Amino acid sequence: MVLKVFGGALALLAVVAIVLVYKVRTGATPRDTVGATAEVMRENARLVYYVLEADGPTIVMVPSLGRSASDFNELALDMQRWGYRVVLIEPRGMRSRTGLDTPGLTLFDLADDVAAIMAQEKSDEHIIIGHAFGNRVARAYATQYADQTRGVILIAAGGKVKLEPRIEQALIRTFWVWMPDFWRRNEVRLAFFAGDNEIPRYWMNGWNTPVSQMQVRATFSVDSGDWWAGGDEPILVIQGMQDTIAPPEHTADLMIAEFGDRIDVVRLENAGHAILPEQPEAVAQAVADFSARYAN
């Protein structure tokens, strides 16, 4: 009897372990990114990116913390339809699992990753878009490669003001892909989505913890003052008015106060930190309007 109970417990533990491994693997797997796949080696990192061809100017897109460039799929396709060539940047380690253990990586090294990709693409001038964490990389890039930057678009542009403890907790728990969705969805909503906006399946998945840890280390390796200005080209801030991670008073309002007429702001109601899946048409229109002014 004891052996049967013990054996049953082991079987149950084995099932739980299999379920957890499955959840971790699927939870960290992003959806496919649109465009033609390409890559370039930079030191020990195999950098993966995607290209949507068109005859117009180039727009570069850099995704959020621990997230894939596939978050931009809908926006990228819209921009291609409007004649823009789009380059979607995967963070190092997202698809290739290389380059994460490079010692001493800084935010400017991640900007150099973007530069290596754009050099291979032979793009001398482009607009760069950064979403959430990607706004830091975009600003670091515009600082370091000002001669190649025609304009900067920042979506959910935080990075200077410390998060409230409960919001920081929700952000951390978002990466707990082994937890049940019914529980974790509340954390994802608090950190990223406004009101009762739908949370797409791909936003419950695709959270890559090792990549996010590398990005956090790279962020804290430099002072925010080194990249906050984002060079000297025009900047568009797309501001979710219900963004709990990067609320207006910590982002758009701060930047207007510091940089004045150099900053354009589009304020979107019913939008949190995710913004892209919440207000796709409004985001695409804002990007198109800004790009029409500065990309040509």
* Strand count: 8
- Rounded to the nearest angstrom, the distance between the terminal CA atoms is 78 Å
- What is the radius of gyration? 20 Å
Compute the average pLDDT.
91
**What order do the helices and strands follow?**
HEEEHEHEHEHHHHEHEH
Uncertain regions spanning at least 5 consecutive residues? 9-23
General form: globular
Please state how the strands of the largest beta sheet are arranged side by side: 1-2-4-3-5-6-7-8
Tell me what the structure shows.
- This protein has helices at residues 2-27, 73-81, 107-120, 133-144, 165-174, 181-192, 201-204, 209-220, 252-259, 280-294, and strands at 36-42, 45-52, 58-62, 85-89, 126-131, 149-155, 235-240, 263-268.
- Mean pLDDT is 91; it is low at 9-23.
- Helix 2 packs across helix 10 (280-294) and helix 5 packs across helix 6 (181-192).
- The chain is built from ten helices and eight strands.
- Helices cover 41% and strands 17% of the residues.
- The longest helix is centred in the N-terminal third of the chain and has 26 residues, at 2-27.
- Helix 9 links the parallel strand 7 (235-240) and strand 8.
- The N and C termini lie far apart (78 Å).
- It has an eight-stranded mixed β-sheet, sandwiched between helices.
- It is an alpha/beta fold.
